Amino acid sequence: MPSPSIYTVAQRAGVSIATVSRVLRDSGPVAATTRERVLAAAAELSWSPNRLAAGLAARVHGAAGIVFPDLAGPYFSQVVLGFEEQAVADDRSALILATHGRLNADEMVLDLAARVDGLVVMDRTVTDEVVRCLEGRGSPVVLLARPAVGATPAVRAESLDAATRITAHLIALGHTRLAFLGDPEAAPDVDDRWRGFLLAHLEAGLPAPGKPVRSGFVQDEGYAAGTALLDDAARPTAVVCANDEAALGVYAAARDLGLRIPDDVAVTGWDDIPAARAVTPPLATVRQPMRELGRQAGALLSARIAGVPADSLTLPTEIVLRASCGPPANSRTPTNRIPTPTRRLEP
Questions:
Q1: What separation in angstroms does the CA of 191 have from each of 3, 46, 173, 303?
Q2: Cβ-based neighbours of 232, under 8 Å, separated by 6 or more
Q3: Which residues are CB-neighbours of 89 under 8 A, at least 6 positions away?
Q4: What gap in Å lies between CA 269 and CA 133, rounded to an integer?
Q5: What domains does the chain contain, in order, with CATH numbers?
C-alpha cells in the first residue's frame, strides 16, 4: 500500500489539503469539529507532516525553488538561466523541480517548499488550491506564466495582444483559412494566444475555426499535428503555432508533403528561439523575454522572502516578421502593416 499523504488525510476527513495544513500548523481558524476530524484521520493513518515543513517558518535554507512542467527545449532552459542568475545575485542556491505530469506533483511541490525559502511555480504544474495551501503554510510564492491567485503575484509575458496582431497581419496579407496549432488547456499563456487568434477573426469579420489543432510544445508533436492538418485538400493557407518548436514541426510536415512555405502555407511561431532565425525560410514569430521572465520571477520571489509587498508583472513581447508569413500565392495586395486590435475578447 502507498504511504499516506496529506491528500489521504484530507480525503479521510472530508476536507481540503489547505484545511489539513491549517490544523496541523495551527495557522488559521478551523471549526473545532473539523479540527477533531482532521486529527482523528491523521492518527488513524499514522501520518505526520514532514518535519522540515513543520519548521519552515523558523528556518532559513539559503535556497529558492522553481517548479516547471518539463525542462525540455530552449524556452524552459532560458527561463531557468534567468532564475538561476537572480538566485546567485541573491546569494541563494536554486532547486529545480520538473513535474512531468506526475500524479503526485502537488505533494512533490509541497515537499520542495519545505526545503527552500520561497518557490516560483510555473504554468499549471499545481492547482490554485495548492498555491493557497503554500501561502497558508507561510511559504512565499510567485507564479510564472499563469494568472495571479489571490494575493500571490505572477510574472507573465504579454500574449493576447501579440497573438491578435500577428493573426490580423496574416489576415491582412490575404489569408482567410487559418488554423491555430497548440493546446490552450496546456498552459494559460497558450490560452491567451488562442483567444487572440479568435479575436483577430472577430475584428476582421471572418469566421474562426471552432477549435484549435491540439499539439504539444515539442517538434515531434508539431510534426504529427501539422501532417494531419496539411495533408488535406481543405488545408489552411496559414498556421499560427503556439511556440517555435511546434512551428518547426509544421515546417518538416510541409516539406515532407511537398508544400512550400510561405507560398502554399504561411507559418508563425512564438518565443523566437535561435532556430527560428536559422531555418529556411526564417520563421516569423513573437519574441518573448524568456530569460528575463525567470530573472523577474526570481527578483519578485526575493522581495516576498524579505517581506516586501510585490505586485504582478507583465513583460512586453515583440512581433518579428520574417519570410515564413508571406501572402498566399493568389494574393495581389500584400502588406507589412501589423493591425492594432480595437476590441478585447472576454475571458
A1: 36, 42, 24, 29
A2: none
A3: none
A4: 36
A5: 1-49 (1.10.260.40), 61-152+289-315 (3.40.50.2300), 160-284+321-325 (3.40.50.2300)
Q: How far apart are CA 170 and CA 268, in angstroms?
A: 9
Q: Is residue 285 a contact partner of residue 247, using CB atoms and an 8 Å limit? A: yes
Distances (CA, A) of 168 to 32, 183, 208, 339, 346: 58, 20, 12, 6, 18
Q: What is the pLDDT of residue 2?
A: 61
Among all chains, which residue has been given the C-alpha cell 489539513? 20
Residues in the chain: 347
CB 215 within 8 A of CB 185: no
Within 10 Å of residue 317's Cβ, how many Cβ atoms?
A: 22
Q: pLDDT (tens digit, 9 = 90+) per residue, 144-183?
A: 999 999 999 999 999 999 999 999 999 999 999 999 999 9
As a whole number of angstroms, the longest Cα–Cα distance in the chain is 76
Q: Quickly count: other Cβ atoms within 10 Å of residue 24's Cβ.
A: 20
Q: Which residue has the cell 472576454?
A: 346
CA torsion, ordered 37, 38, 39, 43, to nearest 10 deg: 100
| Alpha helix positions (H), 95-187 | 105-113, 128-136, 160-172
The pLDDT value recorded for residue 8 is: 83
Among 5, 233, 203, smallest CA distance to 104 is for: 5
Counting as low any pLDDT under 50, the low residues of the chain are 51-59, 332-339, 341-347
Q: Which residues pair with 266 in a beta bridge?
A: 238
Cell, residue 245: 518548436
At residue 27, what are phi and psi to the nearest 5 degrees?
Answer: -110, 10
Between CA 131 and CA 117 the distance in angstroms is 15
